[in-house]
Every structure is written in C-alpha cells, then in structure tokens.
Amino acid sequence: MKVTFLGTGTSQGIPVIGCDCNVCLSDDLKQKRLRVSALIQIGDKNILIDAGPDFRQQMLNVGINHLDAILVTHEHNDHIAGIDDVRPFNFRSEKDMPLYTLQRVADAIKTRFPYIFRADPYPGAPRINLEIINTEKFHIGPIEILPIPIMHGNLPILGFRINKFAYLTDVKYIDEAQIQQLQGLDYLVISSLQLEKHHSHCTLDETLAFINRILPKKTKIIHMSHTMGDTSLLEAKLPKSVDFAYDGLQISMNYFISDII
Ligand SMILES: [Zn+2]
Ligand SMILES: [Zn+2]
Ligand SMILES: [Zn+2]
C-alpha cells in the first residue's frame, strides 16, 4: 500500500496569492502546498481522498491513468472544487466515477454541480456515481474502509481508516470512541492549521494532544496554513515519530487483507 500526498496545504494553498510573508516567498519546495488530497494505491486500485481545486494538476503530477474511486471527507470547496476534472478518467474507462461520501455532502455536491446530475446531462459532462456512506465499514473491491466520524468545528465530517493507516483532515475534535477506533495504527495522517486558535481547525498543540492519545507508530501532519510559519523550523519541536507532510511525499506500508477480514 502506497500513499502519495498530492497536496498538504489549507484552502488558499501556499503561496497565498499576493502574500509576501517568509513562507509564501520561501524557495523551499517543501513550503509550497497545493490544496489537501492524497492518493492511496493498493494493488492495481487507485483511491483518491478529496478532489479540491488542484485536482487536475495533482493527477498530472502523480501520473496515473485510472482512478477507481474518490472518497470525500466534506463539502468545503478545497475538498470538492475539482471534481469536474474527472472527465478524462470517465472518457478512458467509459464508466461513472464512484464518489463515496455522507448524504449531506452528496446533496451539497448536487447543488454545486447541478449539470452533472441533470436527467439529460450535456454530452461530455462528468459522470459521477454518488455512493452514500455513514459510519459503517464499506468495501472498494477487496479493500475495507472504515469511516471515522470527526468534528470540523460544528460540522460532522469523515476521516478514513484502511488497515493500519488513517487519514483525518480538517480536524477540530475527535471523540473518545473514535480515539479507540484509531488504535494500532502504523501511520496516522492528521491536520493542523496553525499555532493560533481557530474555530474549526486544530492548532499544532491540539493536534499533538490527539496524536498522544492515538499513539500511532508514525504521524504526518497536513492542511497547514502559511500562518503556521516555516514548518522546517517547527520540526525540532515535534516528537521523533511526528513530522509535517509535504507535496509529493510518498509512504509505503504492508497491507494484509487478512489483518482486517
Ligand atoms: Zn504568506
Ligand atoms: Zn473544511
Ligand atoms: Zn480543508
């Protein structure tokens, strides 16, 4: 199982248009962040988490020619704005793209992209098949996926656990029951926006406190704002097993179907 971090930035990306802060002006490629998204590859299956405004560029960057499913964590624009660009995958596969998400998020997608879901869609419109999930396990082929309900401010959203890997973005609060569902991880991916308090995102300290309760073997932090500062300077303050993800980073882990069936 391989995970590629296609984007690791918050909704504006980094650099932010017009900003002259030291992070946005940095030459360090690790400080340049597209909107958050990750590709999970298991066997011949390509599964994407979120399809934000940088989706097209991210697909070109990772160089895949088929996508088997999209998992959507929530309906904010930085997580869904790119779904019109599934069309090349539709044309190649001649199939609808399955998109797994909550009913509320599916309804928002229908409102935001009404032309996709018309009874008589324009020829060449994207073809998306909304698959409604809740907190029950579901399967994509042989791959078992456990949705993890978390809170993004007042908004209930989903993270996902696959085997000993979990991906939680836009986190503000995780209930004790979900902390229990996240035990035994080899890799945790979890968001942290900045150092200052925010109504719907964890600060770095809040994220570290959740990591301390989940106790994964390794953690990668995502969804940073430029207001986090230069993350290379913050690494020293992190525990050894925790660091900031960056665009293009790949991690691999063993995936045993027998572990979860
Ligand atoms: Zn900036
Ligand atoms: Zn959000
Ligand atoms: Zn977001």
Structure characterization notes:
The protein is an alpha/beta fold and 261 residues long. The chain has one domain: Metallo-beta-lactamase, Chain A, CATH 3.60.15.10. Helix content is 21%, strand content 27%. The chain is built from 8 helices and 14 strands. The protein has helices at 55-62, 77-80, 87-93, 103-112, 176-181, 204-214, 231-234, 257-260; strands at 2-7, 37-42, 45-49, 69-71, 97-101, 128-132, 138-140, 143-152, 155-162, 165-168, 187-191, 218-222, 242-244, 250-252. The protein has a 7-stranded mixed β-sheet. Strand 5 (97-101), helix 4 (103-112) and strand 6 (128-132) form a beta-alpha-beta unit. The protein is globular and about 55 Å long. The two termini are 17 Å apart. The structure holds zinc ion (3 copies). Residues 16, 19, 21, 23-24, 226 line the site of one zinc ion.
